[in-house]
Predict the structure.
Amino acid sequence: MTRHFVEEIEALKSNLIKMSGLAEEAIAGAIRALLDRRRELAERVIAEDIRINAMEVQIDETVVDLLALQQPVASDLRFILAALKINNDLERIGDHAVNIAESALASVDRGVEPAPVVELPRMAHITKEMLRNAIDGFIHADAGLCQQVLKSDDIIDDLNKGNVAALVMLMRQDPASLEQALDAMRVSRNLERVADLATNIAEDVIFAAEARVVKHLYGPSPSPRQ
Amino acid sequence: MTRHFVEEIEALKSNLIKMSGLAEEAIAGAIRALLDRRRELAERVIAEDIRINAMEVQIDETVVDLLALQQPVASDLRFILAALKINNDLERIGDHAVNIAESALASVDRGVEPAPVVELPRMAHITKEMLRNAIDGFIHADAGLCQQVLKSDDIIDDLNKGNVAALVMLMRQDPASLEQALDAMRVSRNLERVADLATNIAEDVIFAAEARVVKHLYGPSPSPRQ
C-alpha cells in the first residue's frame, strides 16, 4: 500500500464524513422548519441540496481515480466500493430532506398548523443516530455499530405505521384536515426512507468489513415503504 | 483485454438484462394484479422479489471479482461501475413492484374497486419503455436512447402530479373513498419512483459512455418525490 494510496483513502473518508454531516444537517433543518414554521429555513435546505449533489459527483470521481490508479484488491477494494454505494445513499438522504422541507413550505403557505406526526422529534432523533452510527461504523470498520442500526430500523418502521394509522383516522374524523394530514404522512414516510438508507449503509459496511452479504438476510429488506 | 475479461463482461451484461427483465415483469404483474383484482398474482410478485434480491447479490460479487482480478481502467472501469449502480437501481425497482402488489392486495381485501389512477396503463407503459431504453442504452452504449429516458421522466412527473390532485379532490368529495384513494396515490407514486430509477440508470449510462456527469445537470434531479 503506497503512502499516496493511504492519503487518498483518508481523503475519501473525510469527504464522506463531511457529506454525511451535510445530509444530517439538511434533515434536522427540514424538521425544524416544519415544527417551527420557518419558511426561510425550509428554503435554505432546498437551496443547499446543490452542495450535497456536488459532493456526490466529486466523491464518485475520487472512487474512479482510486480504482484506476491504485487497482486495490481484497478489503481495500470492498471498502472503496462500499464508499461508492454510501455516497449514493447520502445523496438520496439529501433528496428526502428536500421533500420534508417542501412539506414545511406547503404547511407555511397553507397558513394552518400541520397535522401532528406522532413522535416526530423521536423519529428524527432515532434516524439521526442511525445515520451517525452507520457512518461511524464505516469509518472505524465497526460492524457492531452497524448491527445496532439494523435493529433501530424496526422501531422506525413501527413509528411510521403508527403515524399512518393515526393520520388516516384524523382524515376520517376531520375531512378539513385532509391536506395537512397528507403532508404529515409524507414527512413520516420520508423519515422512514432516510432510516432505510441508513440501514442500506450499515449493510454495506458490514459487507465491506466482514466480506459477507447481510442484505436480504435480516428479514424484509429495507424496501421503500411508500 | 484478455478473452476471459471479454467473457466476464458479456456474462455481466446478460445477467443485468435478465435482472431488468425480472424487474419489468414484476412491475407489469403488480399493475395487472391491481387492475384485474388478482390476489394470487399480487402474491406471486411479492414472493418472486427474492429472485431479484438474489441476482443483486450475485451481480455485486461478479463486479468485485472483475475489479479485483482484471483491474480494468478507463472506459471498462466506468462500464463496470455503472453496472454496479444499475444493479442497485434494478433491485429498488423490484421493491417498488412489491409495494404496488401490496396495494393490489389491500384493494382485494377491502372488497371494493380501487380509486382510479388517472391514465395508469399509460403511466405503466411509459415507465416500462423508460426502463427498457435505459438498459438497451447501457448494453449498446447508446447515449441517445438514454437522453430519451430523461425526457420521458418529465411526462411521468406530470402524470403523477395530476393523479395526486385528482385523488385529493376525490377524497374531499367522497370521504368514504379515503383508503382507496390513498392506495391509488401510493401506486402512482411508486410508478413515478420507478421512472426516477430508470432515469438514474440512464444518467449512469451516459456517464459510462461519455465519461461526463449528467447527474444534477438536467434541471431538478429525479429525487424521490413522495
